[in-house]
């Protein structure tokens, strides 16, 4: 077991090594987090700060979610989720290989790139395969839109006997985007406040295929499955605003329930109004796909996940 240093211990250590006061380090950590829209944990921000101060944490293991662009010589343990075919490329007339794998832990996953033939050989000889845990040392975090872990000739990768439960297998969430900068048909993540919630709409779907079931002559009909006993579904439509612009955010079914509660509760308009009052002004991270609503000729996000922005962080932002 790796005993994770508590935040206080970490700060204390950085302060000592940097010859600065604990208060000063804490202030800089908070500034770093604010600059990164609080998308990083305090521990993660402290480690970035340490790296900037030239303090190395070779013994400190990072969680994947805490890796940040620009971090160098990091140490990570992850479970191999996927291995892509090894590619060859020619550089200065010499043919070289590059390998890409995805590793994951309980906080996230990351594309990991091997540039060294000795590391690539471990994939070729089957030592590194899907499902094993690997311990990586001295890798750099690079990338343009998405973070990647890069292993050069100075890096190390070994099999680890650790087991990691509940690894995050979904694609890493995209970085937060301003609503004014959203393009259509892209997966986006925005940090926005709810400014309007419309009365939810209810509809019926076929339990087999989830397609719309139409009500005809006292029966529900699915185009494919005929006469069915439908499942009731709910759609909630909100307007969210992040200061740059606003956009409609649509939630279906489980997501709608996560936003306003169970279908049955929302059949009562009074209950819905209570929910609505609670929601207005609340800030969330919304992830989903941006699309054009042809019917209303407006842009909207079909939400596939949302997470309330930690109120603690909002207070800190206001205090700035
Ligand atoms: Zn059907």
Short note summarizing the structure:
This protein is α+β, with helices and mostly antiparallel strands.
Please describe the biggest sheet, giving its number of strands, its sense, and whether it closes into a barrel: 5 strands, mixed, barrel
Number of helices: 8
Give the cofactors and ligands.
Answer: zinc ion
* CATH architectural group of the largest domain: Beta Barrel
Q: CATH homologous superfamily of the largest domain - what is it?
A: Nucleic acid-binding proteins
* CATH C-level label of the largest domain: Mainly Beta
How far apart, in Å, are the first and last alpha carbons?
38 Å
Might you state the CATH topology name of the largest domain? OB fold (Dihydrolipoamide Acetyltransferase, E2P)
Count of the domains: 3
Q: In terms of per-residue confidence, which ranges show pLDDT below 50 for 5 or more consecutive residues?
A: 1-5
| Strand order, sheet with most strands | 2-4-5-7-6
The coarse overall form would be: globular
Helical proportion, percent range: 10-25%
Report the C-alpha radius of gyration, rounded: 24 Å
Structural class: alpha+beta
Q: How many strands?
A: 17
Query: What is the succession of H and E elements?
Result: HHHEEEEEHEEEEEEEEEEHHHEEH
Overall pLDDT score = 86
Task: Indicate the proportion of strand residues.
Answer: 35-45%
Question: Can you characterise this structure?
Answer:
- By secondary structure, the chain is an alpha+beta fold.
- It has 3 domains: 1-57, no CATH class; 67-172, Beta Barrel (OB fold (Dihydrolipoamide Acetyltransferase, E2P)); 179-319, OB fold (Dihydrolipoamide Acetyltransferase, E2P) (Beta Barrel).
- Helix content is 24%, strand content 37%.
- It has helices spanning 7-18, 22-35, 42-52, 117-124, 253-260, 263-266, 269-279, 311-319, and strands at 61-62, 74-83, 87-91, 94-104, 109-114, 133-142, 148-151, 156-160, 187-197, 201-205, 214-216, 219-222, 226-227, 231-241, 246-252, 283-293, 298-308.
- The chain has a 5-stranded mixed β-barrel. It has a 5-stranded mixed β-barrel with strand order 9-14-15-17-16.
- The longest helix has 14 residues, at 22-35.
- Zinc ion (ZN) binds next to loops.
